[in-house]
Amino acid sequence: MRSVLGQRHQEKNARGAVLPMVGVLLIVFLGIAALAIDIGYRNTTKNELQNVADAAALAGAGYLGSVYASQAYKNLTQSQSQNYIFNRSEIVDVVQAAGLANLAAGVNISINDDDIIIGNWDPDTLSVNPATLVIPDAVQVITRRDDQANSPISTFFAQIFNFDTLAVEAVAAAALSGPSWVTEGELKTPFGLSQNVFPNDCKDLIAFSPTTESCAAWHNFFDPINASKMEEKLLGLIQGDATGDGSCEFCDGDRLLNGPEWLTANFDINKEPDPKVTPPTEASQEFNFQGGTISSLFNGGYLGSDYNGNTGTVYANEKKPAPMLALFDYFRYRDGDDDDSVWTATIPVYKDAVAAPGCMNANDSLEIVGFARIVVISPDPPPSSNIQVHVDCNMSIIEGRSGGGNYGNLKGSIPALVR
After folding, report:
1. Which has the higher per-residue pLDDT, 151 or 341?
2. Residues 191 and 86 grouped into a single domain
Protein backbone atom coordinates (compact mmCIF):
# COMPACT_ATOMS: atom_id res chain seq x y z
CA MET A 1 0.00 0.00 0.00
CA ARG A 2 2.81 2.40 0.87
CA SER A 3 4.43 1.81 -2.44
CA VAL A 4 1.26 2.73 -4.37
CA LEU A 5 0.69 5.89 -2.34
CA GLY A 6 4.29 6.93 -2.84
CA GLN A 7 4.05 6.48 -6.57
CA ARG A 8 0.88 8.62 -6.74
CA HIS A 9 2.57 11.32 -4.71
CA GLN A 10 5.53 11.42 -7.11
CA GLU A 11 3.23 11.66 -10.15
CA LYS A 12 1.36 14.53 -8.52
CA ASN A 13 4.62 16.36 -7.87
CA ALA A 14 5.70 15.79 -11.47
CA ARG A 15 2.45 17.25 -12.79
CA GLY A 16 2.94 20.25 -10.58
CA ALA A 17 6.45 20.79 -12.00
CA VAL A 18 5.28 20.55 -15.64
CA LEU A 19 2.72 23.34 -15.35
CA PRO A 20 5.31 26.13 -14.88
CA MET A 21 7.33 24.72 -17.78
CA VAL A 22 4.25 24.82 -20.03
CA GLY A 23 3.70 28.42 -19.03
CA VAL A 24 7.28 29.34 -19.91
CA LEU A 25 7.11 27.52 -23.24
CA LEU A 26 3.80 29.22 -24.02
CA ILE A 27 5.44 32.61 -23.55
CA VAL A 28 8.32 31.52 -25.79
CA PHE A 29 5.93 30.34 -28.48
CA LEU A 30 4.00 33.58 -28.27
CA GLY A 31 7.27 35.46 -28.62
CA ILE A 32 8.18 33.46 -31.70
CA ALA A 33 4.73 34.12 -33.15
CA ALA A 34 5.14 37.80 -32.42
CA LEU A 35 8.55 37.80 -34.06
CA ALA A 36 7.32 35.94 -37.12
CA ILE A 37 4.17 37.97 -37.68
CA ASP A 38 5.48 41.42 -36.78
CA ILE A 39 8.84 41.03 -38.49
CA GLY A 40 7.06 39.65 -41.55
CA TYR A 41 4.79 42.69 -41.52
CA ARG A 42 7.82 44.94 -41.15
CA ASN A 43 9.54 43.28 -44.13
CA THR A 44 6.43 43.61 -46.26
CA THR A 45 6.21 47.28 -45.38
CA LYS A 46 9.91 47.73 -46.18
CA ASN A 47 9.37 46.17 -49.61
CA GLU A 48 6.48 48.54 -50.21
CA LEU A 49 8.59 51.49 -49.08
CA GLN A 50 11.35 50.34 -51.43
CA ASN A 51 8.90 50.34 -54.32
CA VAL A 52 7.83 53.87 -53.40
CA ALA A 53 11.47 55.02 -53.12
CA ASP A 54 12.26 53.46 -56.51
CA ALA A 55 9.28 55.16 -58.14
CA ALA A 56 10.07 58.53 -56.56
CA ALA A 57 13.77 58.42 -57.49
CA LEU A 58 12.93 57.45 -61.07
CA ALA A 59 10.38 60.25 -61.26
CA GLY A 60 12.94 62.80 -60.05
CA ALA A 61 15.70 61.64 -62.39
CA GLY A 62 13.16 61.33 -65.19
CA TYR A 63 12.28 64.98 -64.69
CA LEU A 64 15.97 65.86 -65.16
CA GLY A 65 16.01 63.84 -68.38
CA SER A 66 12.83 65.48 -69.66
CA VAL A 67 14.36 68.93 -69.17
CA TYR A 68 17.53 67.92 -71.01
CA ALA A 69 15.45 66.46 -73.84
CA SER A 70 13.21 69.54 -74.12
CA GLN A 71 13.51 71.91 -77.04
CA ALA A 72 14.06 74.81 -74.65
CA TYR A 73 17.20 73.15 -73.29
CA LYS A 74 18.38 72.21 -76.78
CA ASN A 75 18.08 75.85 -77.84
CA LEU A 76 20.57 76.96 -75.19
CA THR A 77 24.12 77.80 -76.18
CA GLN A 78 26.90 75.38 -75.26
CA SER A 79 27.90 77.55 -72.31
CA GLN A 80 24.31 77.97 -71.12
CA SER A 81 23.53 74.26 -71.32
CA GLN A 82 26.63 73.29 -69.36
CA ASN A 83 25.84 75.87 -66.66
CA TYR A 84 22.12 75.22 -66.42
CA ILE A 85 20.90 75.42 -62.81
CA PHE A 86 17.82 73.44 -61.82
CA ASN A 87 15.14 74.74 -59.50
CA ARG A 88 15.26 72.31 -56.57
CA SER A 89 11.62 72.83 -55.63
CA GLU A 90 10.44 71.62 -59.05
CA ILE A 91 12.30 68.33 -58.66
CA VAL A 92 11.17 67.94 -55.05
CA ASP A 93 7.54 68.44 -56.10
CA VAL A 94 7.86 65.64 -58.67
CA VAL A 95 9.47 63.28 -56.15
CA GLN A 96 6.91 64.00 -53.42
CA ALA A 97 4.00 63.61 -55.83
CA ALA A 98 5.30 60.15 -56.77
CA GLY A 99 5.50 59.24 -53.07
CA LEU A 100 1.96 60.34 -52.30
CA ALA A 101 0.69 58.34 -55.28
CA ASN A 102 1.91 55.09 -53.66
CA LEU A 103 1.14 53.19 -50.46
CA ALA A 104 3.19 51.43 -47.79
CA ALA A 105 1.25 49.58 -45.06
CA GLY A 106 -1.91 51.33 -46.24
CA VAL A 107 -0.54 54.88 -46.01
CA ASN A 108 0.24 57.26 -48.88
CA ILE A 109 3.90 58.08 -48.39
CA SER A 110 4.99 61.64 -47.69
CA ILE A 111 8.68 62.23 -48.46
CA ASN A 112 10.60 64.82 -46.44
CA ASP A 113 12.50 67.48 -48.35
CA ASP A 114 15.64 66.56 -46.38
CA ASP A 115 15.33 62.97 -47.62
CA ILE A 116 15.72 64.03 -51.26
CA ILE A 117 19.28 64.40 -52.58
CA ILE A 118 19.83 65.88 -56.05
CA GLY A 119 23.28 65.84 -57.63
CA ASN A 120 25.66 63.59 -59.53
CA TRP A 121 25.92 59.83 -59.21
CA ASP A 122 29.26 58.55 -57.91
CA PRO A 123 29.68 54.88 -58.87
CA ASP A 124 32.68 54.50 -56.56
CA THR A 125 30.79 55.40 -53.37
CA LEU A 126 27.38 54.24 -54.68
CA SER A 127 25.85 57.52 -53.61
CA VAL A 128 24.66 60.84 -55.00
CA ASN A 129 27.03 63.75 -54.54
CA PRO A 130 24.77 66.68 -53.55
CA ALA A 131 27.39 69.35 -54.26
CA THR A 132 25.53 71.21 -56.99
CA LEU A 133 22.27 71.76 -58.88
CA VAL A 134 24.20 72.62 -62.05
CA ILE A 135 23.30 69.95 -64.66
CA PRO A 136 22.71 67.16 -62.10
CA ASP A 137 22.16 63.60 -63.31
CA ALA A 138 20.80 61.73 -60.27
CA VAL A 139 18.20 61.78 -57.49
CA GLN A 140 18.37 59.80 -54.23
CA VAL A 141 15.28 59.31 -52.02
CA ILE A 142 14.62 57.95 -48.52
CA THR A 143 11.08 56.77 -47.76
CA ARG A 144 9.99 56.30 -44.14
CA ARG A 145 7.44 54.89 -41.76
CA ASP A 146 8.94 56.27 -38.55
CA ASP A 147 8.79 59.28 -36.23
CA GLN A 148 10.16 61.55 -38.97
CA ALA A 149 7.50 60.80 -41.58
CA ASN A 150 4.26 58.82 -41.94
CA SER A 151 4.51 57.41 -38.35
CA PRO A 152 5.93 53.97 -37.43
CA ILE A 153 3.91 50.85 -38.22
CA SER A 154 1.89 49.27 -35.38
CA THR A 155 2.75 45.80 -34.14
CA PHE A 156 0.44 42.89 -33.29
CA PHE A 157 1.79 40.30 -30.84
CA ALA A 158 4.96 42.27 -30.03
CA GLN A 159 2.84 44.63 -27.92
CA ILE A 160 2.93 41.92 -25.27
CA PHE A 161 6.60 42.84 -24.83
CA ASN A 162 5.95 46.61 -24.92
CA PHE A 163 6.99 46.97 -28.59
CA ASP A 164 3.99 48.89 -29.87
CA THR A 165 5.55 50.23 -33.11
CA LEU A 166 8.38 49.53 -35.55
CA ALA A 167 10.37 52.06 -37.64
CA VAL A 168 11.00 51.21 -41.29
CA GLU A 169 12.82 53.03 -44.11
CA ALA A 170 14.13 52.40 -47.63
CA VAL A 171 16.62 54.13 -49.93
CA ALA A 172 16.75 54.34 -53.75
CA ALA A 173 18.77 56.31 -56.28
CA ALA A 174 18.14 56.78 -60.00
CA ALA A 175 20.55 58.33 -62.48
CA LEU A 176 20.86 59.21 -66.13
CA SER A 177 23.33 56.61 -67.35
CA GLY A 178 25.25 56.50 -70.59
CA PRO A 179 23.71 54.98 -73.71
CA SER A 180 24.34 51.26 -74.11
CA TRP A 181 24.27 51.48 -77.90
CA VAL A 182 24.65 53.80 -80.87
CA THR A 183 22.82 53.55 -84.16
CA GLU A 184 24.10 52.65 -87.61
CA GLY A 185 26.35 55.37 -88.96
CA GLU A 186 26.48 57.26 -85.64
CA LEU A 187 30.16 56.51 -85.09
CA LYS A 188 32.16 58.25 -87.80
CA THR A 189 35.54 58.89 -86.16
CA PRO A 190 38.36 56.30 -86.21
CA PHE A 191 39.46 56.89 -82.62
CA GLY A 192 38.30 56.42 -79.05
CA LEU A 193 39.12 57.41 -75.49
CA SER A 194 40.20 55.39 -72.46
CA GLN A 195 37.68 54.99 -69.67
CA ASN A 196 40.25 56.63 -67.38
CA VAL A 197 39.54 59.98 -68.98
CA PHE A 198 36.18 59.92 -67.17
CA PRO A 199 35.07 61.20 -64.80
CA ASN A 200 37.87 62.61 -62.63
CA ASP A 201 40.77 62.79 -65.09
CA CYS A 202 38.92 64.50 -67.90
CA LYS A 203 41.21 66.61 -70.07
CA ASP A 204 39.82 69.57 -71.93
CA LEU A 205 42.03 69.07 -74.99
CA ILE A 206 43.41 65.76 -76.29
CA ALA A 207 45.84 65.18 -79.15
CA PHE A 208 45.03 62.05 -81.14
CA SER A 209 48.30 61.85 -82.99
CA PRO A 210 50.44 60.72 -81.36
CA THR A 211 48.19 59.14 -78.74
CA THR A 212 50.94 57.85 -76.44
CA GLU A 213 50.14 60.13 -73.51
CA SER A 214 46.62 61.12 -74.45
CA CYS A 215 44.62 58.13 -73.14
CA ALA A 216 43.36 57.75 -76.70
CA ALA A 217 43.72 55.26 -79.55
CA TRP A 218 42.80 54.64 -83.18
CA HIS A 219 40.39 51.95 -84.38
CA ASN A 220 38.88 50.69 -87.63
CA PHE A 221 35.51 49.89 -86.09
CA PHE A 222 34.96 46.11 -86.16
CA ASP A 223 37.78 45.53 -88.68
CA PRO A 224 41.49 45.07 -87.88
CA ILE A 225 43.74 48.13 -87.93
CA ASN A 226 45.05 48.61 -91.46
CA ALA A 227 46.07 52.04 -92.74
CA SER A 228 44.96 51.46 -96.33
CA LYS A 229 41.60 49.99 -95.30
CA MET A 230 41.08 52.82 -92.83
CA GLU A 231 41.59 55.38 -95.61
CA GLU A 232 38.97 53.65 -97.76
CA LYS A 233 36.53 53.41 -94.88
CA LEU A 234 36.80 57.06 -93.90
CA LEU A 235 36.10 58.16 -97.49
CA GLY A 236 33.30 55.61 -97.60
CA LEU A 237 31.71 57.19 -94.54
CA ILE A 238 31.35 60.40 -96.50
CA GLN A 239 29.77 58.76 -99.52
CA GLY A 240 27.55 56.52 -97.42
CA ASP A 241 26.25 59.27 -95.16
CA ALA A 242 22.50 59.89 -95.06
CA THR A 243 20.45 62.33 -93.01
CA GLY A 244 17.59 59.90 -92.41
CA ASP A 245 14.92 62.60 -92.26
CA GLY A 246 14.63 63.85 -95.83
CA SER A 247 15.54 67.39 -94.83
CA CYS A 248 18.96 67.70 -96.46
CA GLU A 249 19.28 70.72 -98.76
CA PHE A 250 21.79 68.97 -101.02
CA CYS A 251 20.22 65.51 -101.11
CA ASP A 252 18.31 63.25 -103.43
CA GLY A 253 15.93 61.99 -100.78
CA ASP A 254 18.14 61.12 -97.83
CA ARG A 255 21.31 60.48 -99.83
CA LEU A 256 24.02 63.13 -99.69
CA LEU A 257 25.00 63.12 -103.35
CA ASN A 258 27.38 66.02 -102.91
CA GLY A 259 29.62 63.88 -100.71
CA PRO A 260 31.33 61.87 -103.50
CA GLU A 261 30.62 64.70 -105.96
CA TRP A 262 32.68 67.31 -104.16
CA LEU A 263 35.40 64.76 -103.38
CA THR A 264 35.63 63.80 -107.05
CA ALA A 265 35.56 67.40 -108.22
CA ASN A 266 38.07 68.67 -105.69
CA PHE A 267 40.39 65.69 -105.36
CA ASP A 268 40.17 63.78 -108.66
CA ILE A 269 39.58 60.42 -106.98
CA ASN A 270 40.57 57.55 -109.25
CA LYS A 271 38.70 54.83 -107.39
CA GLU A 272 35.22 54.61 -106.00
CA PRO A 273 35.14 54.87 -102.18
CA ASP A 274 33.57 52.05 -100.18
CA PRO A 275 29.98 53.24 -99.59
CA LYS A 276 29.59 51.54 -96.20
CA VAL A 277 28.37 53.25 -93.06
CA THR A 278 29.41 52.04 -89.63
CA PRO A 279 27.20 49.34 -88.09
CA PRO A 280 25.15 49.66 -84.89
CA THR A 281 27.46 49.31 -81.90
CA GLU A 282 26.76 48.22 -78.33
CA ALA A 283 28.72 48.57 -75.14
CA SER A 284 30.43 45.21 -74.33
CA GLN A 285 31.41 44.72 -77.98
CA GLU A 286 35.08 45.06 -78.97
CA PHE A 287 37.10 47.20 -81.36
CA ASN A 288 40.74 46.66 -82.24
CA PHE A 289 42.48 49.78 -80.87
CA GLN A 290 46.00 50.99 -81.68
CA GLY A 291 48.01 53.80 -80.12
CA GLY A 292 50.57 56.05 -81.77
CA THR A 293 50.26 57.82 -85.12
CA ILE A 294 48.68 56.73 -88.40
CA SER A 295 50.19 59.30 -90.76
CA SER A 296 48.49 58.02 -93.91
CA LEU A 297 45.15 59.30 -92.61
CA PHE A 298 46.57 62.82 -92.93
CA ASN A 299 48.33 62.45 -96.31
CA GLY A 300 46.68 63.95 -99.39
CA GLY A 301 44.90 67.07 -100.50
CA TYR A 302 42.99 69.36 -98.21
CA LEU A 303 40.50 72.20 -98.55
CA GLY A 304 41.33 75.86 -98.07
CA SER A 305 39.70 78.46 -95.86
CA ASP A 306 37.30 79.45 -98.66
CA TYR A 307 35.60 76.04 -98.52
CA ASN A 308 31.90 76.52 -97.77
CA GLY A 309 30.68 72.96 -97.29
CA ASN A 310 30.33 72.11 -100.97
CA THR A 311 32.97 73.91 -103.03
CA GLY A 312 36.37 75.40 -102.30
CA THR A 313 40.07 75.47 -103.08
CA VAL A 314 42.26 72.37 -102.82
CA TYR A 315 45.80 72.71 -101.53
CA ALA A 316 48.52 70.15 -102.36
CA ASN A 317 48.61 68.51 -105.78
CA GLU A 318 47.22 65.15 -104.69
CA LYS A 319 45.04 62.60 -106.47
CA LYS A 320 43.20 61.77 -103.26
CA PRO A 321 42.01 63.70 -100.21
CA ALA A 322 43.64 63.43 -96.80
CA PRO A 323 41.01 61.17 -95.14
CA MET A 324 40.89 62.82 -91.71
CA LEU A 325 40.80 66.34 -93.13
CA ALA A 326 38.15 65.36 -95.69
CA LEU A 327 36.07 63.73 -92.94
CA PHE A 328 36.37 66.84 -90.80
CA ASP A 329 35.48 69.21 -93.65
CA TYR A 330 32.48 67.13 -94.61
CA PHE A 331 30.83 66.45 -91.27
CA ARG A 332 31.43 69.79 -89.58
CA TYR A 333 28.77 71.20 -91.92
CA ARG A 334 26.36 68.34 -91.21
CA ASP A 335 26.63 67.53 -87.49
CA GLY A 336 23.71 69.69 -86.35
CA ASP A 337 25.68 71.71 -83.77
CA ASP A 338 25.17 75.08 -85.53
CA ASP A 339 28.92 75.67 -85.64
CA ASP A 340 30.57 75.02 -89.01
CA SER A 341 34.07 75.61 -87.62
CA VAL A 342 34.10 72.37 -85.58
CA TRP A 343 32.82 68.80 -85.87
CA THR A 344 30.76 67.42 -82.97
CA ALA A 345 30.88 63.62 -82.97
CA THR A 346 30.29 60.49 -80.89
CA ILE A 347 33.21 58.16 -80.14
CA PRO A 348 33.62 54.89 -78.21
CA VAL A 349 35.15 54.71 -74.73
CA TYR A 350 37.28 51.60 -74.23
CA LYS A 351 38.17 49.53 -71.18
CA ASP A 352 41.62 50.28 -69.76
CA ALA A 353 43.70 47.72 -67.87
CA VAL A 354 45.69 50.44 -66.10
CA ALA A 355 44.18 52.02 -63.00
CA ALA A 356 43.56 55.76 -63.15
CA PRO A 357 45.30 58.13 -63.22
CA GLY A 358 47.20 57.17 -66.36
CA CYS A 359 46.35 54.74 -69.10
CA MET A 360 47.81 51.95 -71.18
CA ASN A 361 49.21 52.20 -74.69
CA ALA A 362 46.28 50.54 -76.44
CA ASN A 363 47.30 47.90 -78.97
CA ASP A 364 44.70 45.19 -78.61
CA SER A 365 41.11 44.19 -79.04
CA LEU A 366 39.36 46.11 -76.26
CA GLU A 367 35.85 46.16 -74.84
CA ILE A 368 33.71 49.25 -75.37
CA VAL A 369 32.34 50.43 -72.00
CA GLY A 370 30.58 53.61 -73.09
CA PHE A 371 30.37 56.46 -75.55
CA ALA A 372 31.46 60.08 -75.40
CA ARG A 373 30.57 63.30 -77.18
CA ILE A 374 33.60 65.23 -78.46
CA VAL A 375 34.33 68.29 -80.60
CA VAL A 376 36.99 67.91 -83.31
CA ILE A 377 39.00 71.07 -83.88
CA SER A 378 40.41 71.85 -87.32
CA PRO A 379 43.27 69.44 -88.11
CA ASP A 380 46.61 70.86 -89.13
CA PRO A 381 47.22 70.50 -92.90
CA PRO A 382 49.88 68.11 -94.26
CA PRO A 383 52.64 67.35 -93.54
CA SER A 384 51.29 67.45 -89.96
CA SER A 385 49.69 64.24 -88.70
CA ASN A 386 47.86 65.73 -85.77
CA ILE A 387 44.26 66.34 -84.82
CA GLN A 388 43.05 67.86 -81.58
CA VAL A 389 39.80 67.07 -79.85
CA HIS A 390 37.96 69.04 -77.21
CA VAL A 391 36.34 66.82 -74.59
CA ASP A 392 33.56 68.48 -72.67
CA CYS A 393 34.16 67.24 -69.15
CA ASN A 394 30.52 67.98 -68.31
CA MET A 395 27.81 65.69 -69.54
CA SER A 396 26.13 65.77 -72.92
CA ILE A 397 22.60 64.42 -73.35
CA ILE A 398 21.32 62.05 -76.02
CA GLU A 399 17.55 61.72 -76.04
CA GLY A 400 15.68 58.48 -75.42
CA ARG A 401 18.52 56.22 -74.33
CA SER A 402 19.92 54.73 -71.13
CA GLY A 403 21.21 51.46 -69.73
CA GLY A 404 24.92 52.00 -70.22
CA GLY A 405 27.71 52.58 -67.75
CA ASN A 406 29.15 55.74 -66.28
CA TYR A 407 32.16 56.04 -68.58
CA GLY A 408 31.96 58.94 -70.95
CA ASN A 409 30.32 62.34 -70.87
CA LEU A 410 27.33 61.15 -72.88
CA LYS A 411 24.14 60.47 -70.93
CA GLY A 412 20.75 59.18 -71.98
CA SER A 413 17.59 61.06 -71.01
CA ILE A 414 15.87 57.94 -69.58
CA PRO A 415 16.82 57.18 -65.94
CA ALA A 416 17.76 53.83 -64.47
CA LEU A 417 17.89 52.65 -60.86
CA VAL A 418 21.47 52.58 -59.60
CA ARG A 419 20.75 51.85 -55.94
Report:
1. 151
2. no
